[in-house]
């Protein structure tokens, strides 16, 4: 019986792409909130983007995104 070789690189890439899409949606939500709330501090959005990514488990601690 042949064992099926799992291509981890493509699997990982697919997971990262899915995660990036989630992150993009969250960022749009925050940007919309910033526009609605008239928040001018965009650095807060950047910080929140990283925090949300970490919470969603997209960015691991060792990643430098």
Question: Which properties best describe this structure?
Answer:
single chain; 65 residues; mainly alpha
Structure write-up:
With 65 residues, the protein is an all-alpha fold. The protein has one domain. The protein has 2 helices and no strands. The protein has helices spanning 8-36, 42-56. Helix 1 runs antiparallel to helix 2 (42-56). It is elongated and about 55 Å long. It starts with 7 loop residues before the first helix and ends in a 9-residue tail after the last helix. It comes from Candidatus Woesebacteria bacterium RIFOXYA1_FULL_43_9. This is Large ribosomal subunit protein uL29. It holds the Pfam family Ribosomal_L29. Belongs to the universal ribosomal protein uL29 family. One of its GO terms (molecular function) is structural constituent of ribosome.
Helix content: 55-70%
The general outline is: elongated
How many helices? The count is 2
Radius of gyration: 16 Å
Largest sheet entry: none
Low-confidence stretches: none
Average pLDDT, rounded to a whole number, is 67
Return the structural class.
mainly alpha
List SSEs in N-to-C order: HH
Q: How many distinct beta strands?
A: 0
The termini sit apart by: 41 Å
Residues in β-strands, percent = under 5%
Instruction: Tell me the count of domains.
Output: 1
Mind sketching the topology for me?
Blueprint: H1 8-36, H2 42-56
Helix pairs in contact: 1-2
Put the structure in a nutshell.
The chain has 65 residues and is an all-alpha fold. It contains 2 helices and no strands.
């Amino acid at each position: 019986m042949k064992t099926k070789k799992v291509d981890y690189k493509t699997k990982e890439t697919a997971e990262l792409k899915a995660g990036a899409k989630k992150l993009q949606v969250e960022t749009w939500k925050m940007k919309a909130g910033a526009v609605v709330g008239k928040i001018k501090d965009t650095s807060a959005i950047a910080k929140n983007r990283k925090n949300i990514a970490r919470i969603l488990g997209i960015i691991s601690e060792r990643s430098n995104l």
